[in-house]
Amino acid sequence: MKNLPEGGHPEASSSCPSPRELPRELVEMVIAHVILDTSTPKACSVTCLSWYVATLPHVNHTLTL
After folding, report:
1. What is the pLDDT of residue 8?
2. What are phi and psi of 49, to 5 degrees?
């Protein structure tokens, strides 16, 4: 019997997100809509690793005066 990839689906590969994870493009679209609010991207960054990675450039490169 073959070992099934993560997620248990034979057609799943390591580059596909798990069924519990949103696609990266969708996460980036959500972040793009909330980027102007200073507190929301920070809150999104603690959601999970993929959201942290998507918000990292925006949180660290935003200059607030």
Report:
1. 52
2. -65, -40
Chain Cα centroid distance, residue 11: 22
Number of structural domains, the chain? 1
pTM above 0.85, yes or no: no
42 token code pair: 């920070």
Query: Would you say residue 38 lies in a domain?
Result: yes
Domain of 51 in residue numbering reads as 24-60
In a domain, 4, yes or no: no
pLDDT of 57 strictly over 70: yes
Determine, yes or no, domain membership for 32: yes
Place of tokens 């949180």: 59
Residue with the bigger pLDDT between 61 and 25: it is 25
Residue 41 and residue 59 in contact, taking contact as beta carbons nearer than 8 Å: yes
